[in-house]
Amino acid sequence: MCLTFSKAAIAWAAMNSSNTVRLGVLGCGTVGTSFVQLITEQADEIERRTGMRLEIAAVSVRDASKERAGVDASLLTTDSDGIVTHPDIDVIIETMGGVDHTKALMLSAFGSGKPVVTANKELLALHGPELFAAADTAGVDLALEASVAAGLPFIRALRESLVGEDVSRAMGIVNGTTNYILSQMTEHGASYDNALAEAQRLGFAEADPTADVGGFDAGSKAAIIATLAFGEAVRAGDVHIEGIETITADDISNATRMGYVIKLLAVVEQSDSGAIAARVHPTMLPSSHPLASVRDSFNAVFVEGAGIDQIMFYGRGAGGHPTAAMMVGDAIDVALNKRAGVHRSVGELGSAAIVPIDDSVSAFYVSIDALDQPGVLADIANAFGSEGVSIRSMEQENSTDDVARLVFITHDAIESDFRKTLAAVSDLDAVKNVGQVLRVVCD
Amino acid sequence: MCLTFSKAAIAWAAMNSSNTVRLGVLGCGTVGTSFVQLITEQADEIERRTGMRLEIAAVSVRDASKERAGVDASLLTTDSDGIVTHPDIDVIIETMGGVDHTKALMLSAFGSGKPVVTANKELLALHGPELFAAADTAGVDLALEASVAAGLPFIRALRESLVGEDVSRAMGIVNGTTNYILSQMTEHGASYDNALAEAQRLGFAEADPTADVGGFDAGSKAAIIATLAFGEAVRAGDVHIEGIETITADDISNATRMGYVIKLLAVVEQSDSGAIAARVHPTMLPSSHPLASVRDSFNAVFVEGAGIDQIMFYGRGAGGHPTAAMMVGDAIDVALNKRAGVHRSVGELGSAAIVPIDDSVSAFYVSIDALDQPGVLADIANAFGSEGVSIRSMEQENSTDDVARLVFITHDAIESDFRKTLAAVSDLDAVKNVGQVLRVVCD
């Protein structure tokens, strides 16, 4: 019914006084709908505080005949290409997701001199450096607060407040699904399968949960965090990814007993040489660590640097309203910039070396089942020592009559040295099984 | 030795290429020194990421003959008035503290078209609305990230990311000294006096600790948070203030037993009518609350709103490096804005009504010593009920043979109703003592 470019938008444009900024929204799912609602509700307050009136000019959808609660049907159009090029639209709000077509729309928007506000982590993790450069060339903003840990205003902090900071590491709980599952396992002793089923029942996990539980969603976010924290081009493919599928109730209870919690972390680090390590993996964190108390589907990003020491941002990682709230903040920002004829650049991104996983450094937890005999512990300790892997702590659990479960935590070690250690330990006659391996953050 | 305006600054200016921004620093204490060091160390990286070179043009001190580690002596001058008006200085960094003279310098800087970056909470809490208006009139920035919870980039989030958000409440642990003292009491069972003495020994508390332990420092910060969170003019005098001096080891252990921690919170709330309540007081928080795990001298600010749900910012509240790091972020921001010929306004601040403390609403904790006799609890419960104060929970502790300690937590109640309840309870013959009263945050 509304196949050509929205006449509604043109009508809006005609009514505009000069302090009005017209927003073209791509997509009208949960986030797009919440965005339109928030702008409608907050327009007066925004005008009072910024002197600028934000108005929705058009909303692109696949099916313009379907009703959307809280969105005026006359704003709907199926012509997303028309929105990004329309001369009466000032700012593009991208909530449609997807990669190739969305990228083309974004480049077209830049070409029409329109800044873009996006929550699209996949697109940014794959093509972020290219998109930042295109926005710069066009002299417009690409704002992405909602793309990582959607409800936390930390991207702006990384880009602006901390741009002069020598960030050494950022660690994030950036996937609400896995944090919900691990919280259920920790607090209620649930098995992985039961916690996943519960998350699916509540709508926190997809029917095919691979993107979340496999760590891929967090991997995209790790690439974006690394790019902005270090000013270097880091892409999804640069991130080493391990998911939470192998975490058992036993692992959780071991961790609890030792004073740790298990969280799926996105970890990005820059060494003094400038090389960048970016990883996603289940991680043991001391229960006193600020990230340890981030429960359920909440997200948090913990940043360390020479000047700031430690900073953490905590909030809703997803959801229509929190995501849309951050996009409203971005929309105001890019609209103010556009009116002033300026834009915020991320600068020229560097191309720092990516540390291969074999060379990366971490402390490790490993559980080993071995015969409960004199000399066995010495043999195992020797295997660690001969690869230069130093043991921080060891605990023995009584498992069965003649097999003891030994739980080790190492000091920081090079990944390949640790893997060689495990191979050597496996070869010992007295060792029956090398069980779960987890990385550990000790401070 | 250096009484006139720094020749060094003029020399710097002469060397400047067009991408250089010259900073005039007022004050060279811990923060000023750290700021100069950070700029010196990070200048190359900042230039790479922003295209702009930041240089220290001059630093004002009281005694220019005193050496300052890491600060080139030729930059020092005693002429702060000269710095704020010098045509070759672009941005003013105010780290000197103080109110009247500093305010005059700031207004003079605005008059010379210079944006100001400040960490001066006293000045902003007393004269913030006037200073914001003066900066606006001059068309320059007044940036204040480091004025509240210095090492947390949350002011920018309030001013920018959340400017379109309907914030209902912000609660902050914004004083490191009191948080250190309360953490020591909670974790080590220390008495208030011993914890204070330890804080003084470690340099976390002043010889005269009144400004911190009396809640006055947090009160200044509450006024600034309320102003920016709600876009309303709120001043230090609008904030109801109670300190932590009366908190005992008993109070702490009662709270722990009941699953709470005690924190000194700055609480600012805006009701649906638009009226603002701003208070600083010791507060019982459930131990599962994100603010409950903020330990030692760390700070955090927890913000609630319709869109964002809950957000928390966590980090170092003070210290030369964290404070200076945030001021570097601000300096980059205002320098970019100045080059672009734009500035960030807080908009026209409203003048919302301030809720008197008698009319404010909170849940309360109170401990009451009463004779251990039949009917006493009913009499006390009646006293609550007749003022419309609803009891959420009650616990009885066995204190002595014939006197029982009763600990009540109420549902939300109007302050004056609760005070009337306490007066009525005091008048009961069986009641021997009405002890500690604390406000409670239940969710």
Short description:
2 copies of one chain form a homodimer. Chain A is α/β, with parallel strands linked by helices.
Class computed from helices, strands and strand pairing of chain A = alpha/beta
Uncertain runs of chain A with pLDDT below 50, 5 residues or more?
1-17
**Quantity of strands of chain A, as a count:** 17
Largest two-chain interface: A-B, 67 and 67 residues
Q: How would you describe the shape of chain A?
A: elongated
Question: What is the makeup of the main sheet of chain A?
Answer: 11 strands, mixed
Tell me the number of structural domains of chain A.
3
Give structural notes.
The structure is a homodimer of 443-residue chains. Chain A is of the alpha/beta class. Chain A is built from 14 helices and 17 strands. The first copy, chain A, has three domains: 7-151 and 321-340, NAD(P)-binding Rossmann-like Domain (Rossmann fold, 3-Layer(aba) Sandwich), CATH 3.40.50.720; 164-316, Dihydrodipicolinate Reductase, domain 2 (2-Layer Sandwich); 359-440, ACT domain (Alpha-Beta Plaits, 2-Layer Sandwich), CATH 3.30.70.260. In chain A, the strands form two sheets. In chain A, strands 7, 8, 9, 10, 11, 12, 13, 14, 15, 16 and 17 form an eleven-stranded mixed β-sheet that branches. A six-stranded parallel β-sheet of chain A has the order 3-2-1-4-5-6, sandwiched between helices. In chain A, β11 and β12 form a beta hairpin. The longest helix of chain A is centred in the first third of the chain and has 21 residues, at 30-50. Chain A starts with 6 loop residues before the first helix and ends with a strand. Mean pLDDT of chain A is 92; it is low at 1-17. β12 of chain A pairs antiparallel with β12 (309-316) of chain B, so a sheet runs across the interface.
